[in-house]
Amino acid sequence: MTTPWDRFKQAARREEPDQVPVALIVDSPWLPGYAGIDTRDYFLFPDQWLAINRGLLERFPDAVWIPGYWIEYGMATEPSAFGAKIRFHPDSPPSVESMITDLNTWAENIQPANPEEDGLMPLVLRQYRKMDECLNAEGLGIKMVCARGPLAVSSNLVGITPLLTELAINPDTVTKILEVVTTSLIRWLHAQLDTLRQPEGIMVLDDIVGMVSKAFYTELVHPHLRRIFDEFDGLIRVYHNDTPCKHLFSSLAEANFDVFNFSHKIDVAEAKTLMGHRVALMGNVAPLDIGVRGTPADVLDHARACLDKGAPGGGMILSFGGGVSPGTPAENIDALLQAARDWR
User: Fold this and answer.
1) Which of 154, 225, 152, 147 is nearest to 185 (CA)?
2) What CATH number is attached to the domain comprising 181?
3) Domain tally, the chain
4) Which candidate in 23, 101, 300, 315 could, as Cys together with 280 as Cys, close a disulfide (CB 3.0–4.6 Å)?
5) In this structure, what are the phi and psi dihedrals at residue 149, rounded to the nearest 5 degrees?
6) Is residue 257 within 8 Å of 237, Cβ to Cβ?
7) CA 146 to chain centre
């Protein structure tokens, strides 16, 4: 029997499965509220975390959850490995306080993170190992792991504006930082993969990439993204960037990832043209205006329009144009799944 994960893998290879898969990025901005618990409890009590994530498969059996059983602390895990201050909240993911003011000094002293010892990373690895053992005993398992991208992590440490300003006026300094951060992220992804019995994919999330010009991207950013995705050739590689950045799409298609989750503000037909069918497209229903504020009928209409434009020829994964936003009703996810079942 063909499973939703089988269909996802087919679409990731730009094939046309018997049914367009629906894949959704879910994490701590949505899941604790969906389950009706304190966000801190979601992180603190593994039994509640497991019950919530396992419950998604029972409530939405036709959906693929990306990455699925994601052990994350919002944006905080990777910055914490470099010493960032983390604040926890009852009703939202942890926040990260920028900590670096002198990029030149930091560039001279920054060392790659050690996933086995630094920040929250060892706790995440420990929980992955334990949860994967538990899930494998039930015939399940964790298929994919994640990392925030090099610009996203660096911007959490120094602030978005200082990082992008220095990228323009002091690119050599920022390049030193990005090289070390990229090395750390590759180590981090390998460390996570090594805890799992049957890993099949990685996901990198970096919206800040979309804020640079094409020239800066090509010279200063692309080498780091490409280095990450090249390292994991043979696995399914998903890249999330929901900043409206169609000026980069043709260049991003050369970064060697398989699936692109992009902004709902970019028409899926235009994205397909710009990407040249070199990657699978994962989208493209608006996550807030339609996913949260719309009705199931609205979701159906927009999902069908996306499928009509993006699904012919294969390589289409129906989703929201970003992660599942806080407050998304379960009924709107049902409507997304219904649209995929009905479309031919």
Assistant:
1) 147
2) 3.20.20.210
3) 1
4) 315
5) -80, 175
6) yes
7) 7
